[in-house]
């Protein structure tokens, strides 16, 4: 998913799972419908405060659904588990390990993304270390990550001008505010609550994002 040249197409929708999945069978049915829309470019399994066994079981269950729809599945935080389940990559925060170690675990045909908050310096470091994409944010207040570092959308245009590495915008993104991030240079917008908590459900939500990003 991390091809910056995809940017001249509409900005992609990068979907994060909820932090907890209570009913995996039901979630898979919903995810199948969401991915069948063709709107989602990438899915990140972002489970928090669960045992490794739950991450592994969930990743193994989601991979066939993602691949049926040709959507890469990245794991949040855990390059080791991404390698174990043969996921398509990993997203690393600044405390989640370094790119070089993740690359050793995953190999060269997997995607590695790195959280860079509002820092071009961190983004250049990540790029030099071999990240496939960098993530900036939070651009708007997020109910999912309430204490995230705020970021200004000018960082997206600056990054777009000076590098060829894809950038992802994250944090409080909705159908109403995603366009300004795409116009500023985001290649992908990463979204959680605006999809899973949409009043008309997640399938309707991704359709509204599709229209907003077209
Ligand atoms: C695409 C994307 N961007 C940023 C993050 C945040 O990662 P991190 O800072 O490690 O925070 P957690 O998600 O682990 O709480 C992300 N997950 N995905
Ligand atoms: C993981 C993460 N990192 C910065 S904001 C955020 C949460 C994104 O979720 P939402 O789209 O619900 O704000
Ligand atoms: Mg993390």
TrEMBL record:
Residues that coordinate or bind Mg(2+): 77, 96
Pathway listed: Cofactor biosynthesis; thiamine diphosphate biosynthesis; thiamine phosphate from 4-amino-2-methyl-5-diphosphomethylpyrimidine and 4-methyl-5-(2-phosphoethyl)-thiazole: step 1/1
Entry keywords, A to Z: Magnesium, Metal-binding, Thiamine biosynthesis, Transferase
Necessary cofactors: Mg(2+)
Chain residues that bind 4-amino-2-methyl-5-(diphosphooxymethyl)pyrimidine: 44-48, 76, 115, 145
Cofactor note: Binds 1 Mg(2+) ion per subunit.
Molecular function via GO: thiamine-phosphate diphosphorylase activity
SUPFAM superfamilies: Thiamin phosphate synthase
InterPro entries tied to this protein: Aldolase_TIM, ThiamineP_synth_sf, ThiamineP_synth_TenI, TMP_synthase
E.C. code: 2.5.1.3
Residue ranges annotated for the Thiamine phosphate synthase/TenI domain, each copy included: 13-195
Matches recorded under HAMAP family: TMP_synthase
Purpose of the protein: Condenses 4-methyl-5-(beta-hydroxyethyl)thiazole monophosphate (THZ-P) and 2-methyl-4-amino-5-hydroxymethyl pyrimidine pyrophosphate (HMP-PP) to form thiamine monophosphate (TMP).
Record NCBIfam families: thiE
Family of the protein in this entry: Belongs to the thiamine-phosphate synthase family.
Name under which the protein is recorded: Thiamine-phosphate synthase
